[in-house]
Write a structure and sequence with these properties.
Blueprint: E1 6-11, E2 14-19, E3 24-26, E4 31-32, H1 33-47, E5 54-60, E6 70-72, E7 84-88, E8 91-95, H2 99-107, E9 110-119, E10 127-133, H3 142-155, E11 161-164, E12 170-175, H4 183-200, E13 205-206, E14 218-221, E15 230-232, H5 251-255, H6 268-275, H7 288-294
Parallel strand pairs: 13-14
Antiparallel strand pairs: 1-2, 3-4, 5-6, 5-9, 7-8, 9-15, 10-12, 10-14, 11-12
Helix pairs in contact: 1-2
GO molecular function: DNA ligase (ATP) activity
Keywords: Ligase
Pfam family, one: LigD_Prim-Pol
């Protein structure tokens, strides 16, 4: 029988039990649970910004990324008193709004954090995100594809920022004023954008929903952005071999064909020190011009 090691840490006045701190969660990246919790502390100010007051789904890997995993929507039990929750459609979710809550989830081997597109206070989108989803596991054209999406949005007078999913795709984030648009309006603009891209670059993009019918084309997923659905939050770690982190990028990095695998738990601290949160540099965008054409 293995020996279980545990201790407690005091965070913002709350005692949190840490079990098996030496357990290796990312074997090839050499990251133990204790190191992971230290990385989460660094990520917290950024990750919490995109998770607080939203409905959180996590993916748990009790024995590290090479073991079995499961999605966790409902708040784990027993639940500490400092954990705030929010209920949607009968499910009580974690509201990831504090460092103690984040470390508690990290100790439970929650290695990925996926947040809803809207706040717990209403059903209106908090931002607009277009997901570029490759149909093949290794897609060398993904950065070029994201550049073309950014250019298309720019011609519409819309400024955007790309971020790695941390897996295989790129997501294009467009900040908007909360409460200004509905999900239906964003889906309308998303369909227009996807249609434009597939017609202009038919050998690169598709809006075909069924993966088996896409061939090697990159799917412009504008449908995922909807009430109750989730996406990998900016700055969430991912359960990938390299311990990647969903990371906002500069457009110049895409022009230099950067690699998703370069943005990891090992590199994120230096990057945040250098650039901060790139998404926050963009003002909320107006979509009125394109919506006026579509209505």
């Amino acid at each position: 029988m293995g020996v279980s090691i545990k201790g407690t840490v005091l965070i913002e006045g709350h005692e949190i039990t840490v079990t098996n701190p030496e357990k290796v969660l990312w074997p090839k990246a050499g990251i133990t649970k204790l190191e992971y919790l230290q990385k989460l502390t660094i990520l917290a100010p950024y990750l919490l910004h995109y998770c607080k007051n939203r409905y959180l789904t996590t993916i748990r890997f009790p024995n590290g990324i090479e073991g079995k995993s499961f999605y966790q929507k409902a708040v784990p039990k027993p639940t500490p008193s400092f954990v705030h929750t929010a209920t949607l459609q009968g499910i009580t979710y974690v509201n990831l709004d504090s460092l103690p809550t984040l470390i508690w989830l990290g100790n439970l081997a929650c290695l990925e954090f996926h947040s809803s597109f809207h706040y717990t206070t209403d059903d209106l989108p908090a931002e607009w995100i277009v997901d570029l989803d490759p149909s093949v596991e290794v897609e060398p054209r993904i950065m070029h594809a994201a550049l073309l999406v950014g250019e298309a949005l720019s011609t519409m007078g819309i400024e955007s920022i790309p971020k790695t999913s941390g897996a295989t795709g790129i997501q294009i984030v467009i900040p908007i004023q909360h409460g200004q648009y509905t999900f239906e309006q964003l889906r309308l603009v998303g369909h227009f954008l996807g249609n434009y891209l597939t017609k202009k670059y038919p050998d690169l993009f598709t809006i075909e929903r069924l993966k088996k019918n896409r061939g090697n084309l990159i799917y412009v997923d504008y449908l995922q952005h909807w009430q109750g659905k989730t996406m990998s939050a900016p700055y969430t770690p991912r359960a990938r071999t390299c311990a990647t982190v969903s990371t906002p990028l500069r457009w110049e990095e895409l022009q230099n064909n950067c690699r998703i695998e370069d943005f990891t738990l090992h590199t994120i601290e230096q990057r945040l020190a250098e650039y901060g949160d790139l998404i926050q540099r963009i003002e909320p965008q107006s979509l009125e011009a394109v919506l006026s054409i579509l209505h």
